[in-house]
Amino acid sequence: MYFRSLRYFVAVYEELSFSAASKRCFVAQPSISASVHQLEEDLDCTLFIRHSKGVTPTPDGEALYPRACKVLSEVDEIRHLFRETTPSFPMRLAIMPFLPGDRVSFIVKELINLVDGLDLTLVDLNEPSDARIISITQRQPDEAFHKLWVDHYVLAMPRNHQLSTLDDIPLEALDGTAFISRKPCDIDEAWHFAVAERGLQLITRATVKTEEYALDLVAAGLGVSIVPSQSTRHREDILVRNVSNVELKRIIGFAYDKQRPVAPELLQAITQAQLRFSG
């Protein structure tokens, strides 16, 4: 049994959702699910009842929760006991919603490992922050911006969609197609320009805020949607195709105030992330 599995179990218990726990822990959902499953095998019990709205703890899960919290608290105390005292470096990092959890978690780990004494707090974009992980379209004039990776947009469609036999979909083939729209969306202006330029008409069935909801509606057969390719990973209930004659992408980067001094270790963490995501 590993402490990490207990941390993931506590996150799922408190969030009542594997997907919410993955966002909280900045870890891909399959990793959360696999760790909890392994914990259930180690303990020879079922900790959660899975259902369409999330999870419900079983009696065994209810019994494990306070004990897991106690163990994790004692582990943290032991770590602090033997950790050398270093000057504290407080930093508030804002992260735009719905970025890939594995990439955000890598950046966070690099910052913690490389910046001595870092006291890191993750906040929402609407909160005060010292640095931000954002799309370049959200960059302010007074911010420095270091590109981390590029998200290319793809067409997500139901598995039985009439265009599913094509490997690449020309944009014109979507004329009259049922569509799931998203707002806000980084490429909204470019997408609508490309559609209008060709005189196409899409039938908007729904407008949602998140990529996850858009993909759920696609899987339900309500239409197609344009989403970042990263968000379609681990989705086996949809098909993904390239749009052959239009390129849509967003640039994700690390932004901070140009006037504020930056620790060399922080720039090193950014460089490590760039190398990791360049492939």
Automatic annotation (TrEMBL):
Any one GO molecular-function label of the UniProt entry: DNA-binding transcription factor activity
SUPFAM superfamilies listed in its UniProt record: Periplasmic binding protein-like II, Winged helix' DNA-binding domain
Keywords from the named record: Activator, DNA-binding, Transcription, Transcription regulation
Regions crossing the membrane: none
Superkingdom, taxonomy of origin: Bacteria
InterPro entries tied to this protein: LysR_HTH_N, LysR_subst-bd, WH-like_DNA-bd_sf, WH_DNA-bd_sf
Record-stated family: Belongs to the LysR transcriptional regulatory family.
The protein's name in its UniProt record: Hydrogen peroxide-inducible gene activator protein
Species of origin: Marinobacterium lacunae
